[in-house]
Amino acid sequence: MSGRPPAPQLILGFADYLAPAQRLAQRLRIGCATVAIHRFPDGESRVAVPVPLPEHIALCRSLDRPNDKLVETILAAAAARQHGARAVTLVAPYLPYMRQDSEFTPGEAVSQRIVGALLAERFDAVVTVDPHLHRVATLAEAVPAPCAVALSAAALFGAWVESHEPDAVLVGPDEESAQWLAAAAAGHRFETAVCRKVRAGDREVTVDIPAVRLAGRAVVLVDDIASTGTTLAVAARRCLALGAASVDALVVHGLFVGSAAADLRAAGVRNVWSTDSVLHPTNVLPLDALLAGAMEAPPAV
Ligand code: R5P
User: What is the pLDDT of residues 161-197, one digit of tens each?
Assistant: First the structure.
C-alpha cells in the first residue's frame, strides 16, 4: 500500500456496478450517486456526473471487460474535476491489464505499465483488490498514483472454506496462486498444494499436481482470476482423476468469459464461488467491508 486515499464524501457508481458501489457508500456512511452513461450508436459514450460535487469523491466501478469502461471512467473523473472535485479516487475491485506486465513477444505493448500510467495521471488514489502483480512487487510500481492500495480478499477465503468444506485440501492451479493459498490457509488447518501450470494458448493449459493425497478428499481450487475457466477446469479434471471426492473452486475475480461456467460444470466442478469484484451469479463474498476499511477517515486523536 502506498499512502491512504483521502476519505471520500460521495461515491459515484455506474449502472453496471451499482449495488457494490451502494454497499461501499453505506459502509462509509456517505451518499452514492450515479454517473449517467449513454452509448451512441457509433460506440462512443456520453458521460455525465451529477453536479454539484463535494471536494473528495470516489468513482467505484469494476473494470472487467475494460475497453469501454476505461474510457468512460476517465471521462467521468475529468468531468468530476471540472465540477469541483479536488481529490478523485478510483475504487476498481478488478483492475484490468495487469497480466501483460512484459513484452512477451517483440512489439507487444506492456499494457500493465501503460494503463497504470493512464490511471495514475487521472486519479489521486487507486484502490483495488488482488491485482495480478507477477513481475512487480507493489501496485505503486504498476500504477504510480500518489496513493495506490492493493487489498487482498484471500483472508476472506479461509473462513468461507472453513464453513463449507472444513477438511478441504486447498489446491492452487499454478505457482502464482501460492500467495492466495497461503493467505487463505493462515489461521486454519487446511493442507495446501501448489500445482505447476504451462500455458500454450488462451485455452490450452496443462496442470501438474504435486505429490499430495487427494483420493477421497474434498478439494477447493483457489485462484485469483477465472477468465476462460480453462485453468480451473484442467486442474479439476486432474484432481478428480486422482480420486478427489469433490472439487469446488474459489476465485477473487470471476470473469467467466464465454462458456466458462458451463465448462467448469462439465469438468466436474461442484460449486464455483467468487467475490463481487466482478458481478456474477457465483458471487458469495462481498468486498465492501474490506474496501471501506482502507478508505474511511482515520479516527480523530
Ligand atoms: C493467471 O496466471 C491467473 O492467475 C489465472 O490462473 C488465469 O488468468 C486464468 O485464466 P483462464 O481462466 O483463462 O485459464
Answer: 999 999 999 999 999 999 999 999 999 999 999 999 9
Ranges in the chain, pLDDT < 50: none
For the structural domain made of 10-152+286-295, what CATH number should be given? 3.40.50.2020
Q: Same CATH fold, 154-276 and 10-152+286-295?
A: yes
If we measure between CA atoms, which residue out of 138, 212, 134, 127 comes closest to residue 177?
134
- Listed by start position, the domains of the chain span 10-152+286-295, 154-276
pTM value > 0.90: yes
Q: Is 197 a catalytic residue?
A: yes
- Find the radius of gyration of the CA atoms of the chain: 20
List 61, 69, 132, 197, catalytic entry: 197
Q: What percent of the chain has pLDDT over 90?
A: 93
Alpha carbons 234 and 250: distance in angstroms, whole number: 15
User: Ligand 1 pocket check: which of 223, 228, 237, 251 to mutate, most ligand atoms within 8 Å of Cβ?
Assistant: 223
- Class of CATH domain 154-276: alpha beta
- CB burial of 162-194 (b: ≥16 within 10 Å; e: otherwise) equals beebeebbbbbbbebbebbbebbbeeeebebbb
What is the C-alpha separation between 61 and 253, in angstroms, rounded? Answer: 14
Residue 98 corresponds to which cell in the numbers above?
A: 495487469
